Amino acid sequence: MSRTDLTFTSHGAECAAWLYRPDGDGPHPIVVMAHGFSATRELRLDAYAERFVAAGLGVLLFDYRHFGASGGEPRQLLDIGKQLDDWRAAIAEARNVDWADPNRVALFGSSYSGGHVVTLAAEDRRIAAIVAQCPFSDGLATLRAVGPKHAASLTVHALRDQINAALGKPPHYLPAVADPGSPGVMTTHDAKPGMMALVPRDTVWENRVAARIGLRVPLYRPGTKAKHVQCPALWCITDQDTLCPGDNTAKWAAQAPRGEVKRYPIGHFDIYVGDSFERAVADQTEFLRRHLLPG
User: Fold this and answer.
1) Has residue 196 been placed in a domain?
2) Alpha-carbon gap, residue 86 to 108, rounded angstroms
3) Are 193 and 273 in contact (CB under 8 A)?
4) Domain for residue 145, yes or no?
5) pLDDT tens across 262-275, in order?
6) Which of 174, 57, 172 is nearest to 108 (CA)?
7) Is residue 50 part of a domain?
8) What are the pLDDT digits (tens) for 225-255?
9) What pLDDT, on the 0 to 100 scale, is given for residue 26?
10) What is the value of pTM for the model shown?
11) Which stretches of the chain score pLDDT less than 50?
12) Separation between Cα atoms, residue 260 and residue 254, nearest integer Å
């Protein structure tokens, strides 16, 4: 296994990636990966990548524009359309890797990016398989889960940031995770401790995000695209999820023609660490090997 630094361009900005090559002669299948809401690649996604590579799968793991080691101004701007474009650029880059098989490109998304991979697989019939881990599936379900008081507070901050953008002013930021009752985007009881448990000592991750994303969260419903996903698709659902309700995700996953579902009696952030991580990554590795390394 080897890991090298790689950059690719998405709409004029450089995206930073780690490219993992498995042992042996190619061509190898390759899994394109990126993280969830505000998170960067070193927040435990590298742990998944290492398991996949050890199982014979290549990996391209990247940071979105405006986040982490990637370029893009202003910083910490979470734009759904831009992130989907970054995914498309990363997929194109993966298909051009000299040791990778362009017909065996899979996607792995977690939390917010778990919704992105459903959206992308619905539009790109060349995708060979996807894994959607504790995925954001339905903004309306998330809005109901966080409650009207928090939704109203987030909307006020989001409008302030949107006005700043219209006037050419710097973004108005909110913490990505905060304690319950404090200003922030994710303020459930497990959000801040859960996210902080993923942050390594040396990190470029910042606990802030331009607040305007709050206006767009309710409108993003990638679960509705599940019925159009024709490739094998694994949903890893966290049943005690306070942000992405598990039963709602299961409803959408059931509509995927080749969908498979694994359910875990844990919270949204638990799946990244400890025994829960071990169970999930084993299920995901078996799924990816079965569909990408037949025989």
Assistant:
1) no
2) 14
3) no
4) no
5) 999 999 999 999 99
6) 57
7) yes
8) 999 999 999 999 999 999 999 999 999 999 9
9) 84
10) 0.97
11) none
12) 8
Q: The domain containing residue 74 runs over which residues?
A: 2-139+218-292
pLDDT tens digit sequence for 183-228: 999 999 999 999 999 999 999 999 999 999 999 999 999 999 999 9
Tokens at residue 126, please? Answer: 């060349």
Sheet order of strands, 28-34 included? 2-10, 13-21, 58-62, 28-34, 100-110, 129-133, 233-238, 259-264
User: If you write DSSP's letter for every residue of the chain in order, what string do you get?
Assistant: -EEEEEEEEETTEEEEEEEEE-SSSS-EEEEEEE-STT--TTTTHHHHHHHHHHTT-EEEEEPPTTSTTS--SSTT---HHHHHHHHHHHHHHHHT-TTEEEEEEEEEEETHHHHHHHHHHHH-TT--EEEEES----HHHHHHHH-HHHHHHHHHHHHHHHHHHHTTPPPPEE-SB--TTSSSSB-STTHHHHHHTT--SS----S-EEGGGGGTGGG--GGGGGGG--S-EEEEEETT-SSS-HHHHHHHHTTSTTEEEEEESS-TTGGGSHHHHHHHHHHHHHHHHHHHS--
Other C-beta atoms closer than 10 Å to the C-beta of 163 total 12
Radius of gyration of the chain (CA): 18
Structure tokens at 266: 């844990």
Q: How many domains does the chain have?
A: 1
Query: Which CATH number does the domain housing residue 57 bear?
Result: 3.40.50.1820
